[in-house]
């Protein structure tokens, strides 16, 4: 967990990566992804409960909750309501990028390399794909502002640890290293897990 400060951004690791498969028509996949304007496709990440049934996007900042005094006869009068804040922070919306996969084949990928969750617990992520253009694959044109979610994807459940319980970072995935070698900003570790003191 990254907590409620803004300086220590503990990122979700490994970073979520989604691949977009496109088809001219059923059974005819797009093969020349270099001809597609990847900037016309965006994906939005939101945080949900582990079973994916309840959104967990808003939490209360503990520092905004009045502290009750230790004297039994004393009362605290709060001048402001507790302050809600986003639970998932970082770059929650990313554009597609044309990258080569582990087999050297080009494809369109969404790389969420800057996501962090403020609180500990079990969560899942929901990804909403939104096309911002329409037309042939080689000439996507902007459409009106009534953009709609085209499809959804859910992550598997994962655990967010408090700093004391954190088991340590593991070696970066092959796909993360592959994309980092192509210039994508991903934190890379080439050694095994290391405990934090």
Automatic annotation (TrEMBL):
<keyword id="KW-0539">Nucleus</keyword>
<dbReference type="InterPro" id="IPR038491">
    <property type="entry name" value="Velvet_dom_sf"/>
</dbReference>
<keyword id="KW-0805">Transcription regulation</keyword>
<protein>
    <recommendedName>
        <fullName>Velvet domain-containing protein</fullName>
    </recommendedName>
</protein>
<dbReference type="GO" id="GO:0005634">
    <property type="term" value="C:nucleus"/>
</dbReference>
<feature type="domain" description="Velvet">
    <location>
        <begin position="1"/>
        <end position="189"/>
    </location>
</feature>
<dbReference type="Pfam" id="PF11754">
    <property type="entry name" value="Velvet"/>
</dbReference>
<dbReference type="InterPro" id="IPR037525">
    <property type="entry name" value="Velvet_dom"/>
</dbReference>
<dbReference type="InterPro" id="IPR021740">
    <property type="entry name" value="Velvet"/>
</dbReference>
<keyword id="KW-0804">Transcription</keyword>
């Amino acid at each position: 967990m990254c907590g409620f400060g803004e300086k220590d951004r503990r990122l979700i690791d490994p970073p979520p990566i989604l691949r977009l498969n496109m088809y001219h028509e059923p059974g005819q996949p797009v093969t020349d992804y270099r001809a597609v304007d990847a900037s016309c496709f965006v994906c939005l990440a939101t945080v949900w409960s582990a079973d994916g049934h309840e959104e967990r996007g808003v939490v209360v900042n503990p520092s905004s909750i009045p502290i009750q005094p230790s004297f039994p006869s004393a009362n605290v009068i709060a001048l402001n309501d507790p302050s809600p804040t986003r639970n998932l922070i970082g770059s929650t919306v990313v554009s597609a990028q044309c990258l080569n996969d582990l087999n050297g084949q080009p494809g369109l990928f969404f790389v969420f390399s800057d996501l962090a969750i403020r609180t500990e617990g079990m969560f899942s992520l929901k990804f909403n794909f939104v096309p911002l253009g329409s037309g042939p694959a080689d000439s996507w044109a902007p459409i009106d502002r009534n953009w709609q979610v085209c499809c959804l994807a859910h992550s598997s459940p994962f655990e967010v640890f408090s700093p004391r319980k954190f088991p340590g970072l593991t070696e970066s995935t092959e796909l993360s290293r592959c994309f980092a070698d192509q210039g994508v900003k991903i934190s890379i570790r080439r050694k095994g897990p290391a405990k934090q003191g």
